Each structure stands twice: as C-alpha cells, then as structure tokens.
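ok posting inputs for the 2-aminohexanedioic acid job
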Amino acid sequence: MITLRRSLAFSHLARYRSLSTRASSILNALEIPTSEPIHGVYDGAWGGSGDVHESVCPTTGEVLARVHAATPEELQTAIAKSRDAYEQFRHVPAPRRGEILRQIRESLAKKRDDLGALVSLEMGKIRTEGEGEVQEFIDICDYAVGLSRMMNGRVVSSERPGHTILEIPNPLGVVGVLSAFNFPVAVYGWNLALSLAAGNATIWKPSPSTPLCSVAVTKIIAKVLESNNMPGAIATLVTGGNDVGEAVVESVDVDMVSFTGSERTGRKVARVVQSRFGKILLELGGNNASIVMPDADLDLAVPAVFFGAIGTAGQRCTSTRRLYLHRKVAPEFISRLKALYASVQPGDPLTSGTLLGPLHNRTALDIYADAISKLRHADADILSGGRRYEHAPFDKGNFVEPTIAIPRSADAHDAIWATETFAPVLNVALFDELEEAINWNNAVPQGLSSSLWTRDIRNVGKWIGPAGSDTGIVNVNVGTSGAEIGAAFGGNKSTGWGRESGGDAWKQYVRWSACTVNFSDAAPLAQGVNFSA
Ligand code: UN1
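and the output
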C-alpha cells in the first residue's frame, strides 16, 4: 500500500511539476532534475523512497522541488555503508586524501556562482552572500589540503631510559553532520573538509528545508570520489526530518556528531550522544553584541553594525542582535544607522543590488512577530521597522522590516536580551563605562561572537583579557559576523563550546593514542614504582 502511494506520488509529480525559469535555470546548471522527484539519499548510489520534503522558495513561495528522504531501512543501510567506506578510507595516506580534497575544491570553484545562486534561491540570502558561502567551502578545502600534510602527532620525552612516547592521531570513524538552514553549504564544508582530511567518512543530515543545496553539493563531491575509485559513502547524504536526524544521533556507528542549530535541540542531541559516549561538537545559539566606545571610528562602525544586523536578514548565528552605545556617541550613531536602515529596500536575493532578502520560512516569520510583540508589550521604543512587508510582490515571500528597538530596561537577564531571535531585530542600550557594557555582553546565556569599536589600546586590553568578553569570537573594530575560516569558529556557554573550521578544530576529528614504546632490555615502571617480589 505504501509502495503504491509512493508510486502514485511519483507519477503525480512527474506530470504536474512546472517551474519558473528563475528556478529551473539554476537547477539545470547544477544537474538537479526539474521534471521528476528527487532522490535525497546518497551512499555511493542515489536513492531515497521515504517521506517527501518540499523545498519552498522563501522569496516567491514557489515549490522548487519535492525530495524523497531516507526510509528507516535506507538510513541504516547508509550508516552501514559509511562505516564500510571509513574502514577502507582510513588506509589511504593523508596527503592522498588531501589530493582528493583539492579536486573537490576545483569542482566547487567551477560551480561557485551556480551554487551561490542556489543558496540564494533556496535559503533566501542575497547572491553575494550565497557565493561567499561557497567560497567559504572552497577556502576550507584549501586549508584542509595543507592540513593533510600537517596533521602531526608529537614525540614526548619519556622519564624511562630507552623509552619514547608518541601521541598519534588516527582516523576517528564516521562523523555525523547535522546542519542548519542558514548556512546550507559552508557549515557542511567545514566538517567535510576536516573530516575527510582526517580519514573519516561523513554522513550529512541537512536541514529539511534546504535539501537542494545538499543534493547539489553531494553531486559535486560524489563525482570526485567516484572518479578516484573511492567509495561514495565517504560523503553520505541522508535528507529528511527529525526521525532521520534522531537515528543518526542515536547510532553507535556514528563516532562523532557535529550539530548546528538551536540551544533547545542541541541540549537533546548532546544528551543522547553523551549517553552512548560518542563525541559531540555543538554550534548553538548566538546572541552577539557590538559595543561602541566614544573614540570609535563611526565611518567603520556604523556600516559594520548595519551588515551584522541586517546581513542574511539577521539569520547568521553571528548576527549582531545587541548594540551597546556609549552615551556620548549614541545620538550620532543612531541617526546614521537609522539612515542606512531607511535606505534598505527588500528584493529578490538573486537580483544584484538587493541587500535585504526574505526570512527563510514561516516559522522565522513567527519568531520575528513574537519578538516584536514582546518589545511592544514591554513598551520598547521602536526606532525603525517592526512589520512584515505585506504588499505585492513581497506578500508571496517572508519579508520583514529590519528593526531597531530601545527596550526600557537594559537588564541582560530579561528575555528580550537573553534570547536569540533569529531575525533582523537589533536591541540597543546606552552605557557610561566600558565595564558595564562588558558585563551586559557576558550576562546572557550564549557566547558566540562579540565586537568592540575603539581606538584606545587600553580598552582593547580589557576587552580581550581575563575580565573581558567571554565569547568564542572576540573582535576589535570588526563586526560580529563574517569570520574567516583560518581561526577556530565557535562559541562558549550555551553556544555549546564547539570549535569548527580553522585553529585546532581538526584535532577533534581524529582518535588520539598515547603510545609508549620500550626500545630497551629493561622494563622499568613509571614513577619509580618497584613491584618486584
Ligand atoms: C553560522 O551562522 O552558522 O562568521 C555560520 C560568519 C560565517 C559563518 C556563520 N563565516 O558569519
């Protein structure tokens, strides 16, 4: 019966699917079928005959595709094939793994513009940001190619004669990557590149609302793997909903789970993975502040806050959500910022020049509406925005006015300040002393990114020192969002303490062994322990 229903669904779709040229030209360029249901599972072969997930364009409301997720059986097969792939791949020398990554990098670079356009089409971010996201994947591939010749262990001096201690990194196993809708390409890229260089297989469960980005990326990677005679299940894809994600998280065959998403879901994921003693890497909520001192260069600070708050329509984990202005600089800052906000027109994110695209989905609209209503109830001063765009053509998409508000209270424990609102809502408060602003910066549960604007080196010392900002990303005269790949990316406290991308992040993707080797003819015990009878 189920099979019959599925085959009816297939024939129905094959008959009725008709796409705008806006969408079909992008899908065609990436070899995503436009006339048949799309398989959302890859484990060396394409498949997927489970639930259907719709990809809906956030700009126009058009259904871009219906993608078939993994059934529970298909998912278990995909996990098993990932495991087998890992068992083969771990024997491939790391520099050879790097060479495969280099080819993936080249293939991504050839499709940079098309993939960037798909990100805009399906996620809703503007084109330059969509392309930037693909660039981030390309950059981390470059980084991981180099890393493939530098994932070094250590030789440690032994206290015993004729002994040597080696700290050896070996491949870890299967890495599950659960990514979010807001960065449907780059966050997977960070994980795939490091995981592959480390000799692992990955199994990717993307957000259910951005399946096309994951299919397009996986097609590119699969071609490279297959042309190198490598098992495709080194880069397995399983699209689907919560049930698919839960099965990946629960599987003892998945050695590490890298999860990006909300604090609420992250807490659940962490418990499950911890209870089976798997490794966990979390990238959860950000509630990021910019602090502006009286000596700041406003020509730099105002546009940076503008980009931080409005870029990606406020849907980056690193978006600026809190703005702390020194009382002396506040009037001028606010008037300049309001002028920039007033100049913003919403538009199709695919059209060049658009700065404000739609929110990703209806849920995001509700989150925005809820935040605005809480601000109104708390009698906040709404300086700009506060409404949905409801006239044509914006009524078809999820467009909202970017909002600046001054809440009555600056109490960082108040829900208005303490909650991450994944929408373009910027709350402002005024301060007199830097210490006060740093306390507010640190008083929220989240700890991803923060930025200080000053020309005074003494302020910088306070900001980056022991009593300074407690976030994972601590910037000076640089906005909260738009980090490069070279440093470790991630946050503290309820952001989950995870680190991805650059820095020492790769060290999590390997299994470390401390290996003491005795080359001598004696077998002394450490610490001088004497155990002779
Ligand atoms: C995210 O929002 O999940 O630093 C990732 C940035 C980007 C990555 C953001 N490079 O804003």
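notes: The pocket of 2-aminohexanedioic acid is lined by residues 136, 182-183, 187, 260, 316-318, 481-483 (CB under 6 Å). The first strand starts at residue 38 and ends at 39.
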